[in-house]
Amino acid sequence: MKIVFATNNAHKLSEVSALLGDRFELVTLREVGITEDIPETGATLDENASIKARYVYERTGLNCFADDTGLEVEALDGAPGVHSARYATDGHDFAANNRKLLRELEGKVNRKARFRTVISLIVDGIERQVEGIVEGEITTSESGAEGFGYDPLFMPEGYDRTFAEMSAEEKNAISHRGRAVAKLVEMLHDIELE
Q1: Per-residue exposure over 15-26, b if at least 16 CB sit within 10 Å of its own CB, e if not
Q2: Which of these, 112, 84, 106, lies nearest to 97 by C-alpha position?
Q3: How far is CA 38 from CA 3, 6, 74, 100, 122, in A?
Q4: What's the CA gap between 124 and 25, in Å, rounded?
Q5: Residue 68 is among the residues annotated as catalytic for this protein
Q6: HSE, side-chain direction, 13 A CA sphere, residue 64
Q7: For the chain, which has fewer Cβ within 10 Å, the N-terminal or C-terminal residue?
Q8: 106-131, pLDDT tens digit by residue?
């Protein structure tokens, strides 16, 4: 099945490609002629995933999916959440976001956090959603050089290393996006059998 993934993020694209395997042909936005930034005007991850998927489907008529991911920190009432990518600046400045997060958590004992990914899938005009969550905590300093975003600060529950200290394979096996994509693959298989 050919399916459009509504992202221009090369990191996400390679992560999801590895997780989907060769049963699905992943098509990029650029390949279907969408070069503009897709609006993300939702107040929640669920809304943003849906807005992005509908944007692609309405313009191309192709089966597609979009995700939105956020880091939700308990001591910050769920922030940065839907604003995770633009927490410190208007752009995707990972270093600035990480510095701001560490500043906001200074002196806080509760460092519990979770990564949550919501995926909106549209096949033949019907939209369905799945989510993946990984619980963990925010470390007091950055560690590791792999991954992207908040990976150097996020230590998943049951591990003594951050996502940035894990190989892509290790991270994908337990990550929020990995869990959401596993549910997406299940859903796609179910749809194929209908």
Answers
A1: bbeebbeeebee
A2: 84
A3: 17, 9, 29, 26, 16
A4: 16
A5: yes
A6: 26
A7: C
A8: 999 999 999 999 999 999 999 999 99
